[in-house]
TrEMBL record:
This is Phytanoyl-dioxygenase. Keywords: Membrane, Signal, Transmembrane, Transmembrane helix. It comes from Chrysochromulina tobinii. The keyword Iron-sulfur does not apply. It comes from the Eukaryota.
Length: 424
């Protein structure tokens, strides 16, 4: 192919990618605009239930708008190029070949502008597209892989014999504990999270709030939010209830004096894409678990709602080394995903998945018409230095720990409406 033709093909590709990704929407991912992120239908997406009809209608309208935008931009490119070509040939009397080359140069300059001088928006959009594709391919591999036998306990069993739960978590990096909070507590927190998310989105739209102070840095932000939580009464009540069966398990895993490290809600709306497989923290030589994260379901989470996927026993140096192998074209990574049995983390309301933060896992694609909300909190072994987690700045230095809950948590349900007492 002649260089000029190659450049044109590249530009067309860039233009179509740019349009398909809807640049203004991609800007949201970079935190520049509060508008909704672009949507993409997975070919195997299941039809939403009748209750999701309103969602579906608005999604269809959004899709129509995107398609219109696509054709408008494509039309703009084509007519602009043609107009310039005609102006150069018929207007300025230039030779066809020269005029064609000039049009190509103009397109190249515009392409370079898009890539390098638009604040990284185009590059980010292209990267997002690549990550999305990677995540979908990983999902297909994991679907073919064997299913893991995982340890599942009731809250009652975990309370009666915490050592068994601690041992399962230590060996698998994963354990499920059912019924850690009651459906009533879960529903109250769900209503609070939904209201809080709406309030924060409105404040963001009105530029009264910054995203950094309210949302964590979650992977694949399209229709997905990591909403940082304060010690509001419904949050405090859920935490207190969950710690009743889990305190001994967490203490046995990361120390009786472990510090509260994260407190947030993961919200995944219909069409949230799958995340790529990742650990939350890297493996460090000679280390035991530094952080244990507890994800609590605030409603039932079935297979269509993008339950978290876990690969038990990958909180090890060997699994991290294989996953991070460089220069082999991703062969070891794929082999790991294909060989290791995985677990699809469906949950009933009030149930919890606990992980060692080094475990490989990912949020699934929400192919249902329903919002999925997981309340999550993590505790970090005292003295461990890690990157900061999803915790409001004001709570980071509050000194909340497993061994002083009597100062910040006890009687949470009785103190509904009162403001949080901060341990200093
Ligand atoms: O959404 C989920 O199920 C898990 C999210 C997650 O693992 C993450 O954001 O690190």
């Amino acid at each position: 192919m002649a260089p000029a033709q190659r450049a044109l093909s590249l530009l067309c590709l860039l233009a179509s990618q740019t349009c398909a990704l809807n640049l203004p929407a991609a800007a949201t991912a970079a935190g520049t605009s509060p508008r909704a992120l672009p949507r993409l239908v997975r070919p195997n997406a299941r039809a939403p239930p009748p209750s999701a009809m309103c969602d579906t209608t608005s999604e269809k309208a959004a899709e129509r708008e995107e398609t219109l935008e696509y054709f408008k931009t494509l039309g703009g490119f084509s007519f602009g190029s043609l107009g310039l070509f005609v102006a150069l040939t018929a207007g300025a009397g230039m030779e066809d070949v020269q005029a064609g080359n000039l049009v190509l140069v103009a397109l190249c300059v515009y392409g370079a502008y898009l890539l390098f001088f638009d604040g990284g928006v185009t590059q980010k959009a292209l990267e997002n597209q690549a990550i999305r594709q990677l995540a979908e391919e990983e999902g297909e591999i994991m679907e073919e892989a064997p299913r893991a036998n995982v340890g599942i306990y009731t809250a009652q069993a975990a309370t009666a014999d915490p050592a068994a739960t601690v041992n399962t978590l230590a060996s698998d990096g994963f354990v499920r504990v059912d019924q850690v909070i009651s459906p009533a507590t879960a529903s109250a927190l769900l209503a609070f999270v939904n209201a809080e998310l709406e309030r924060k989105q409105q404040a963001l739209a009105a530029a009264d709030l910054t995203a950094e102070g309210s949302f964590g840095d979650v992977l694949m932000r399209e229709n997905r939010y990591d909403l940082l939580l304060d010690m509001d009464p419904p949050v405090r009540a859920a935490l207190e209830e969950a710690l009743s069966p889990l305190r001994a398990v967490l203490g046995g895993s990361v120390g009786e004096d472990a510090e509260l490290f994260e407190l947030a809600a993961l919200v995944s709306d219909p069409r949230a894409p799958r995340q790529p497989v990742h650990p939350d923290t890297p493996f460090k030589a000679g280390d035991g678990a530094a952080i244990v994260t507890t994800f609590v379901a605030l409603q039932d989470v079935d297979e269509t709602m993008g339950p978290t996927g876990f690969i038990p026993q990958t909180h090890t140096s060997e699994a991290h080394a294989r996953f991070n192998t460089k220069d082999d074209g991703g062969r070891e990574r794929v082999a790991l995903l294909r060989e290791r049995p995985n677990h699809v983390g469906i949950l009933s309301i009030g149930g919890a998945n606990l992980i060692d933060s080094r475990l490989f896992h990912c949020g699934g694609a929400n192919n249902s018409g329903r919002r999925r909300v997981l309340f999550y909190f993590s505790f970090r072994r005292r003295g461990k230095v890690t990157p900061s987690g999803s915790l409001l700045y004001k709570l980071r230095r509050a000194g909340y720990a497993l061994d002083n809950t009597d100062q910040w948590l006890v009687g949470a349900s009785a103190t509904q409406g009162q403001s949080a007492a901060v341990v200093t």
